[in-house]
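Whiteboard transcription, Tuesday session. T.W. wrote the C-alpha cells on the left side:
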C-alpha cells in the first residue's frame, strides 16, 4: 500500500526576506536580493556581489550559548525548520516521535567552520582548533540539530548532491511517507557558502557573473547576455505528511507532492550533458510517478542559473520531455531574484513553487530582456503573471550530473 504526500508547512530564509511571506512578497514586487557582499572582504576577488541573507540574528531561534557551536548553514536550516514546523502545527507526539523524520540537504555544509579553524591553525597552531569543528562542519549537522530540537526520532539523514541537494532531500523524504516508513518528515536544504573558498572557487572556475552594472541585474537566466550565476545563501524547508493523516488532524494542506524523479548524467563533474538527456529522464520519472498527463503541467520553476551552457541544456530538457507542448508552458527562474543558493536552492524553489500554486501567480524571470535563439520558451519575463495553476514542476540540476525534479499539485 502506498500513501499520498501532502505539504503542510513552509519555511524559508532567503536574500529576499527572513521568512516565507516576506520572500514571497518580494517576488511579487519584482525585487532582487542580490547586492554588494558585506559578510566578508571581497575586494580582492573578481566578483564582489552575492545574495546574502541580511538581518538574521541566530539568537532569535537558538540559545545564545549554543550559537557559536553551530555553523551558519545550520543556523539558517534551524530557523527555516522552526518556521515550517510551527506553520504545520506538527509535534513529536502527534504521530509518535519515531514516525517523524528529518532530511535536510546541503551542498558544502559548514564551510565557514572549515575556513575559520584552518586560519586559527595556520596562525596559532593545532591547539587553537575548536573542539566543535567536526560537529559544526558536518553536512548532516542540520538534520541532527533539527531532530534534537523537536524530538523527532524517525529516519534522519542528509543528502549531498550539490545544487540538487534540497530537491533530492524532499524527494527521498516523500518516499519515506509514500512507502510507510514515516508519517511526517521535515525536509529541504540550507547553504552558507559566501566565504573565501566558496566565492574564490567559483571565481576561479569562471562560473560567476562578472556583470558590471547594478548587482540586481547580474543574474539573467535565459537572456542572451547572461554570463554566469550569482552566489547566494539561504534555507528552504517544507513539512511533508501522509495526506490522509494530515486531513484527519485538520492540517492546512498547501499542496500534494505527486511525483519525484532523479537521474545521473554520467557525463562530466561540472558540465551538464549537452543533449539534456539526464535532466529529461528525471522529469519524465517525476511526471510518470505523479501519473499526470504531460499536457496538464502549467508551470515549471526552472533550475535556471543564468549560465551560458546550463540554460540552453535545461531548455533542451523541457523540449525533449514536452515536445510541442513546451511552447504552451510557462517557465521561470526565481534565481533571478535570489541568486543561486546551491544546496538550498531546491528547498527555496519548492516553497516558491507551492506559493505560486496556492496564489495563482507565476514568479517573473528578472532581467530577461533579450531572447536567446537557443532559449525560446516562455520564461515569464520581468514581472509575475497570474495563471490558474494546478500542476507545477520544480527542477534542480547539480554538479556531478545530479538531476532531481519535484511535481506538486493543488489538492
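and on the right, the sequence the group agreed on:
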Amino acid at each position: 500500500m502506498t500513501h499520498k504526500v501532502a505539504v503542510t508547512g513552509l519555511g524559508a530564509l532567503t536574500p529576499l526576506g527572513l521568512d516565507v511571506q516576506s520572500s514571497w512578497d518580494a517576488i511579487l514586487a519584482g525585487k532582487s536580493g542580490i547586492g554588494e557582499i558585506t559578510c566578508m572582504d571581497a575586494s580582492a576577488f573578481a566578483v564582489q556581489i552575492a545574495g546574502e541573507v541580511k538581518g538574521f540574528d541566530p539568537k532569535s531561534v537558538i540559545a545564545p550559548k549554543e550559537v557559536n557551536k553551530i555553523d551558519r548553514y545550520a543556523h539558517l536550516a534551524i530557523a527555516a525548520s522552526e518556521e515550517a514546523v510551527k506553520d504545520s502545527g506538527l509535534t513529536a507526539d502527534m504521530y509518535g516521535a519515531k514516525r517523524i523524520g528529518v532530511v535536510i540537504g546541503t551542498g558544502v555544509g559548514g564551510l565557514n567552520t572549515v575556513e575559520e579553524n584552518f586560519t586559527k591553525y595556520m596562525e596559532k597552531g593545532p591547539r587553537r582548533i575548536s573542539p566543535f569543528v567536526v560537529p559544526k562542519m558536518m553536512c548532516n549537522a542540520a538534520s541532527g540539530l533539527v531532530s534534537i530540537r523537536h524530538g523527532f526520532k524517525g529516519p534522519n539523514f542528509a543528502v549531498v548532491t550539490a545544487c540538487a541537494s534540497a530537491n533530492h532531500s524532499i524527494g527521498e523524504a516523500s518516499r519515506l511517507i509514500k512507502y510507510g516508513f514515516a508519517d511526517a518528515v521535515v525536509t529541504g536544504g540550507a547553504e552558507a557558502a559566501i566565504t573565501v573558498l566558496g566565492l574564490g572557487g567559483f571565481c576561479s572556475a569562471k562560473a560567476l557573473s562578472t556583470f558590471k552594472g547594478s548587482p540586481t541585474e547580474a543574474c539573467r537566466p535565459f537572456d542572451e547576455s547572461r554570463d554566469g550565476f550569482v552566489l547566494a545563501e539561504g534555507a528552504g524547508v517544507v513539512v511533508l505528511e501522509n495526506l490522509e493523516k494530515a486531513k484527519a488532524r485538520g492540517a492546512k494542506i498547501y499542496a500534494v507532492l505527486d511525483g519525484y524523479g532523479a537521474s545521473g548524467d554520467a557525463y562530466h563533474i561540472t558540465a551538464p550533458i549537452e543533449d539534456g538527456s539526464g535532466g529529461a529522464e528525471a522529469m519524465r520519472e517525476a511526471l510518470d510517478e505523479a501519473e499526470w498527463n504531460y499536457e496538464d503541467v502549467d508551470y515549471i520553476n526552472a533550475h535556471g542559473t543564468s549560465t551560458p551552457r546550463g540554460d540552453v541544456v535545461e531548455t533542451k530538457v523541457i523540449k525533449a520531455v514536452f515536445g510541442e507542448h513546451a511552447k504552451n508552458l510557462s517557465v521561470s527562474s526565481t534565481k533571478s531574484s535570489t541568486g543561486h543558493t546551491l544546496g538550498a536552492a531546491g528547498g527555496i524553489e519548492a516553497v516558491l513553487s507551492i506559493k505560486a500554486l496556492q496564489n495563482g501567480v507565476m514568479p517573473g524571470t528578472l532581467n530577461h530582456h533579450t531572447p536567446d535563439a537557443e532559449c525560446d520558451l516562455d520564461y515569464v519575463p520581468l514581472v509575475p503573471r497570474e495563471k490558474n495553476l494546478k500542476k507545477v514542476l520544480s527542477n534542480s540540476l547539480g554538479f556531478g550530473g545530479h538531476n532531481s525534479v519535484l511535481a506538486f499539485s493543488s489538492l
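Someone added at the bottom: The first strand starts at residue 5 and ends at 13.
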